[in-house]
Amino acid sequence: MANEQPHWSNILKRRLANFRKETRSEEEIKAEETELFSKYYSEWKGEGDRDESYQNIPRFYYKLPAEDEVLLQKLREESRAVFLQRKSRELLDNEELQNLWFLLDKHQVPPMTGEEAMISYEAYLEVGEKAGPKSKKFFTARVFAKLLHNDPFGRISIMQFFNYVMRKVWLHQTRIGLSLYDVAGQGYLRESDLENYILELIPTLPQLDGLEKSFYSFYVCTAVRKFFFFLDPLRTGKIKIQDILACSFLDDLLELRDEELSKESQESNWFSAPSALRVYGQYLNLDKDHNGMLSKEELSRYGTATLTSVFLDRVFQECLTYDGEMDYKTYLDFVLALENRKEPAALQYIFKLLDMENQGYLNVFSLNYFFRAIQEQIKLHGQEPVSFQDVKDEIFDMVKPKDPCRITLQDLVNSCQGDTVTSILIDLNGFWTYENREVLVASESDSSNIHDLDDP
After folding, report:
1. Which residues are registered as beta bridge partners of 190?
2. I need a surface site. Which of 52, 157, 221, 244 has the fewest CB within 10 A?
3. Percent residues over pLDDT 90 in the chain
4. Angle at alpha carbon of residue 213, lines to 208 and 216, rounded to 5°
């Protein structure tokens, strides 16, 4: 073993022994030791090529193509379209859904629960084997347990299960449909993306057949505003596709596919033709000088024309205007806020107007500032003014804020009285309704009793 190379540790010991004989400072000796140790340790581990090891790490981030990289942008769009088409082919089509219903009906297990056909877990698994690979994900123990209620035989409703499958398929179809308009491919839609989606959806909705094409742009603006008002509270200009699917707005919009939709349903549906025409018609009626914009004086006639001038001043101070006038899009936000005062997004809109100093809360001064305008309107109508102290105490009693001297937006939302409080402060008609609530309830009760007497 004479030719065997000496072990690196022995070499290190010998060299260190020689170094100790030299007259050098401790710092120099330690530095030399560290350098030698690092060198020999690297040789022993075989890490001479360590600097190139990063090349073995797979790339996991690809930046979005720049605006001038047209070819890369086109390639990205095409690849996403192919991916979404593949995902679409993985969903059950109409023929496969019909076949699934036939199999479920064929394997129902008696007795029926009322008029509901039922299926046991064993039969459920058997259907899953026959239904094909696309249906496999629906036939799991977890899905069965989710739909299992109080059946004494441990079965689930065939109709409930089939509706569950239909809902899942619809959600995936809709997600794929929305994703086709996601230009950035980041899982959200910008305002222009959603406008394109709804514009191309109009011909598929029978309830909108009567709309003039010249009105399409106003309809699309009206529809898109509801999504952004409620789903983009921070006004980022984009909404997650996931949030669109989770809310009920898309259901309301696609409800217009029903050719026999009742008049009541149309009137209560923001996306229906009568509703859109109503909102736009109100805007045109307010626009007395026909310049396509609304001044403060024109907006003051909104609704029952009882909004206070102080509140309207705040609207024009805080909201986007053009030379002091409001356009249709800003008007839509205004309408959505006042027509949905129970909703947190609407309360946030109104709270921002009431919070004059942007403090994040309303105090006695804020309440008094807005209520004085209500008192002035009461005097103009020749009635006795109401004491602010009484109104202030009632507001704090209704809201029950965490801080007894301040009302935050969260306090308003938590109290479920935000619509009443805001109405008292900004609208004479809203205040009058609150002030005379007991009389109104009594008159409604008397009216109901009269109708009861009229019944045979």
Report:
1. 238
2. 52
3. 68
4. 70
Give the helix/strand (H/E) hosting 157.
strand 156-157
Q: What is the pLDDT of residues 236-259, one digit of tens each?
A: 999 999 999 999 999 999 999 998
Token couple for 455:
């019944």
Amino acid found at 96: E
Give the contacts of 99 (CB within 8 A, at least 6 positions apart). 131, 132
Residue with tokens 């009229």: 454
What is the average pLDDT across 18-33? 69
State pLDDT tens for residues 173-215: 999 999 999 977 889 999 999 999 999 999 999 999 989 999 9
Distance CA 58, CA 454 (A): 81
Contact (Cβ atoms closer than 8 angstroms) between residue 298 and residue 288: yes
250-259 LR contacts (CB < 8 Å, sep 24+):
250/174, 253/198, 253/201, 253/205, 253/223, 254/205, 256/205, 256/206, 256/207, 256/208, 257/204, 257/205, 257/206, 257/207, 258/206, 258/207, 259/206, 259/207
In eight-state DSSP terms, residue 95 is H
The model's pTM: 0.77
Q: How far is 293 from 299, CA to CA, in rounded Å?
A: 10
**Alpha helices in 202-260, H assignment, sequence order:** 216-231, 241-246, 249-254
